Amino acid sequence: MATAGRGEWSGKLGFILAAAGSAIGLGNIWRFPYTAGENGGGAFVLVYLFFVLVIGIPVVLAELSIGRFAKLNPVGALKKIAPGTKWSWLGGLGVLTGFGILAFYSVVAGWTLSYLWGALTGHASDVTSAEETAAVFNHLIGGSIMPLVLTAIFMALTIFIVRGGVSGGIERATKILMPTLLVVLIIMAIRSMTLDGGSEGIAYLFKPDFSKLSVGVILAALGQALFSLSLGMGAMITYGSYFPDRENLPQAGIIVAFFDTAIAFLAGLIIFPALFSVGVDPNGGPGLVFVILPSIFAQLPAGNLFAVAFYFLLAIAALTSTISLLEVVVSYFVDEKQWDRKKAALWIGLACFGMAVPSALSQGAVGGLTDFLGTGISFLDLQNIIWGNYSLSFGALMLCIFVGWKWGIPAALGSLESSGHRLAVGGFWSILVRYVCPVAVGAILVYIIITQQYF
Ligand code: TRP
């Protein structure tokens, strides 16, 4: 039984859809392709895949084991398992990280609304040359009123759903929409791969050029794997806490990781062939996806209809992710500070919008935010790196140490297997959580601190 009043998913499928909804989002369709492009393609993709298997899946299971056992938010969960210690601070960092990610993620999610509007009004494929689509994009994000309004709309939608609670709000939205997204992506990938010159894009994505590997590339791949799977900050602790006792949790977790990775690869198979076909530089940064997509819709029969479907589903995918980010923060205030859920969703959402303002204005509107403090990158990009790469990596490292060494594998496995379904690879999982993840993630972070190659 779930703790009274906290809510519970309606079943395993409900959890899989909600957790996949959290995992699948702008991370797969916006962040993965441009990060792969910035980091040289194939070699990055290979390292990313390696991290999904060796660090991502073990951390998914580690977070779910904590959540299912404690049935609490990240702070409460760590307090319950390790009372009287400072481990609950790690949960606190997770809550803060959720807030930090939501504050830039909602800005990018807002951009998708503008593209959805463009498609709805029949303008999805008005301009197709890369110069023109880039100009349209830069005009949109470089404004001041529009990005703020779009971010506000997106935040309002997120608040509205989180107010409604776990199974009422979150589950319902994902049940039909996630499968539909998959179908639309497959059709778009087929079109893109059959464009003239498309095969070059496939080679770029899958032929590793190891001379492109550096610690920066490796950290980017680690951050991307964690970000995409919604790991390192307790989102899966929170989602696991609503998991029904009788169902097979490890299996559900692995299914989610599989789908998330498949969607990222599909996005790559949409973006890179089209990119080579129109002759755009893969190293285009955060605007990459928004610049490339219009050219694909222009080449699809009923392209505008596809554009409507795609941008609608992308916005929904982003929404099911922002919901999970806000949910982590809200569940902390509801469980630990006894706030009313509706009040918590509203005030935290508003505060997060405040934090999003500088990111929204950092794409050209305000010079000091566009090249923030001489870092050479915008305030938004900096937030993306700090929370998305560093904080998640550090969080994942500490969560592995917590589960592997403080709480202990037998207890964690007991929680994962409490429904009677065994995790066949339990021994292997133990080695990954206790040794491989902490050493690998720790080594990357230490190397970066020593060499000071922060961005
Ligand atoms: N995984 C989501 C995406 O790929 C973003 C996200 C939602 C997230 N919740 C998270 C990332 C928690 C890290 C942690 O778009």
List the helices and strands and how they pair.
Layout: H1 12-23, H2 26-38, H3 42-70, H4 74-81, H5 88-120, H6 130-142, H7 145-163, H8 166-193, H9 198-206, H10 215-228, H11 235-240, H12 249-278, H13 288-298, H14 303-336, H15 341-360, H16 367-370, H17 379-416, H18 426-451
Bound molecules: tryptophan.
Description:
There is one protein chain. The chain starts with 11 loop residues before the first helix and ends with a helix. The chain has 455 residues and is mostly helical. The protein is built from 18 helices and no strands. It has helices at residues 12-23, 26-38, 42-70, 74-81, 88-120, 130-142, 145-163, 166-193, 198-206, 215-228, 235-240, 249-278, 288-298, 303-336, 341-360, 367-370, 379-416, 426-451. It binds tryptophan (TRP). Tryptophan binds next to helix 1, helix 2, helix 10 and helix 14. Residues 22-23, 25-28, 101, 227-228, 230, 233, 235, 321, 324-325, 392 line the site of tryptophan.
